[in-house]
Amino acid sequence: MQSLKWILIGLATIFALFLAKEWWQSFPRVNLAPPVSVKNHQDQLDSILIQTINEHHLAGLAVGVISNSQVLYKNTLGYESLDKKDSLTSQSKIHVASISKIFLALYLSSYLQENGLNILDSIKSLSPELNSKYPEIGELSFSQILRHQSGLRDASFFSGFFRKKNTPNLQDFVWSQLPKQVNGKGDLSYNYADFNYELLGYLLEKDSGLSYDNLLNRWLSEDLDLQNSYFKGNSQEENPVVMGYRKTYIWKRLKPHPFTHQVSPYPSSGMISTLDDLIKVTTQLIRADLGMLKSNVQALEVNEKESWAGFQQIAVGPESNWMGHFGGQAGYSSLLIFDPEKEFGIVILSNTRDKGNFRIDLARKIIKILEV
């Protein structure tokens, strides 16, 4: 009995220390005052953004709404850093996580066209070496990989515990993962895996002779005129980026949860951007038939019944053809959606992990207010 008593005292002490540490390393949640009066759509949208921050314990929230190629609404609330209390702005640089995949798909479509290829061709056309060692993977089409219908899988969660602490470069990471891919059974059913996009990023590097970050960053700045969007490479210092947060386990507070790069550069999730830059791109995607991304989109639009390759079909409202992508990693949550038929799009960025599905909830409320 005496030993059990000391065991219980020890466990209680550990738990108390955990609570104290969690409190010490966290910040009070952001609590914004609701508007005094709500007179128009602008006030309504402001009100639901404030409500979203308060209810879901968000550190910051940035939202842009585009209609008929015009910015119908744009607002940012909360902070870049709860420590410094720097206000979040439409120019704040923030990790967009898996929204990065959209940009890889758009760039790849252009790259393939320039080389006389299309997304229905097999990936062996960009890497004979990969095809000689893994012919089954080499026969996969770019479309299958973009749509996560390749049979490729991500490494298991537990394998991360045994991975080296240093961030591998893209080539080393891909070749370390290829032997672990089991594609022999021909299972090409949908399975969402970041590795699909790491592989595509590597293929672009291999064929072009340039690093993925050099390829994409030049395209982002020169072709798309996105001056604050980029992929971080091995040799680059990270520019000041918005800090990510998550809710603490016990207290109603927020704890820093920074972004970590699984691989560098990081094609599937490593893009950093701003609300203003993503609004600019969403406007071009809405204008798919007329905008500067017309040829990119046409190359990805193989089947009218499916979303564009590299884009997710997202259920937001009834009878709507919403496309785009979710992003969520570490303390960051994002959503980019648009409907070309309605000429309408929404961008949502937050530096807080989404545990309550606030992104799709907020998008539906915006659509309802604006009667889209």
UniProtKB/TrEMBL annotation:
Q: Name one Pfam family in it.
A: Beta-lactamase
The entry lists its GO molecular-function terms as: hydrolase activity
Q: Does the keyword Hydrolase apply?
A: yes
> What keywords sit in the KW lines?
Hydrolase
Q: Which residues form the Beta-lactamase-related domain?
A: 49-367
Residue spans making up a coiled coil are none
Keyword Hydrolase listed? The answer is: yes
- Record-given protein name: Class A beta-lactamase-related serine hydrolase
Q: What organism does the UniProt record list as the source?
A: Algoriphagus formosus
